[in-house]
Amino acid sequence: MAYQKIVLIALICVVTCTRIENNQGVMDQYVNTGVQQQIEELTQSKIGHFVVDLAEVSMRVTGAIDSLRDGVKAFGRQIEERLKLENTQWEAVEGEHNAKVISLSSQANQAEFDINREKKVLNSELIPRLHELDDILLGLKAKQTDNTQSFKEAEAARNTQNQSFQLTTTEFTDALRNIDEALDLLTDLFKSGDVRAAFIQITDEQKHKINKSLKQVKSNTENFGHQYSSFIQALTNLTERFDFKDRQVLNEICDFLNSLRLNIFDALTKAYKDEDSQKYQHSLRTQQLTAEKTVFDQQYADFYQEREDKTVRISDVQTMISTRQADLKAYQDRLRTQNNNYSANLKIHDDIVASVQQELAVLAKALQLVQTPPFLDFLNARITKA
Asked: What is the annotated signal peptide range for this record (predicted)?
């Protein structure tokens, strides 16, 4: 209570401009050098100056400064409470700052981890697989092209075989028909004559028909190539020396034509068998190519779909990387701002603490000084001089 009265008196003194000024001359006259230096150091600060002035006011009003000492101690305790409150508040600020730094650092580290993980997936798995799929699809496209070409070649070969078959069977059929006509003509000659006679009567018309028929047979068999060359030569020899009246020669011609007919018939039969075999082989080849085409088409569709999926996945991963890179920058910016703000607040806190600690140090020195007799002599000298 006494301290509050002293403070009130001091404020009144300040407001009414009745503050006692420091008189250097009085100090030089009545105060020893050590006390003078201490007082000068105290009055360098506002709070030290205030204590000295308050001590003078207290001495003027009450004639003593005992209550001042209690007031200074109380004021010091208030300053200590203020320092304690500042430190408590700073601990909360520092705790909040550390929590934010930990959170932002964790988020930044997670973002960086996600970026590195997705880049690894992109560069080690997705892109190499995409290139591999491109090579696979290129190879399958080549196989599909070869398969299509094989189809065309197989069809062309089959058409060629069939055309050859049609031509061959036509020629063989024509040859058989002409041989049968020649045999019929020769058979008619045998029927028209006496079977016991060595020679047969023949008209010019009959002779002409037989010659025409034999020439046609010769023409047909010449188209068959080297396999019938012996028959062709024999027929030529017979026709050159042919005497239609000679029954023995006619028998030889008939035997020759029957033998030729059997050979051509066998060749025709073989041609049909070959055609059936070629048709069967073509069918097998077509089935094989169709099966290959089905496999190639399915493989191409599957790998193409996988490539489409990989392309979408790559786009998603690239988007993820871009997003997480933006997140990482945001976390780093916020962390930088947080640290900058913390540094600024820390400086303010340190300045406040340093200022309060300085005030406490001044109060401690003032409390020690005002309790010394030389200081009382100083106050009395100022009061007396005033």
From this structure: 1-17
Residue 201 gets the label, from left (phi > 0), alpha (psi -120 to 50) or beta, of beta
Q: Which of 155, 364, 154, 178 is nearest to 257 (CA)?
A: 178
Q: Tell me how many degrees the CA angle 192-196-202 measures, rounded to the nearest 5.
A: 35
pTM: 0.62
Maximal C-alpha separation, the chain = 200
DSSP state, 226? G
Half-sphere exposure of 149 (CA within 13 A, CB side): 6
CB 45, CB 358: distance < 8 Å: yes
Listed in sequence order, the residues at least 6 apart from 32 whose beta carbon sits closer than 8 Å to its beta carbon are 374
Single-letter code of the amino acid located at 198:
A
Residues 217-247 have pLDDT tens digits of 777 777 666 566 566 666 666 655 555 566 7
Q: Comparing C-alpha atoms, which of 308, 311, 323, 303 is closest to residue 118?
A: 323
Name the residue ranges covered by the structural domains of the chain. 2-103+358-385, 132-312
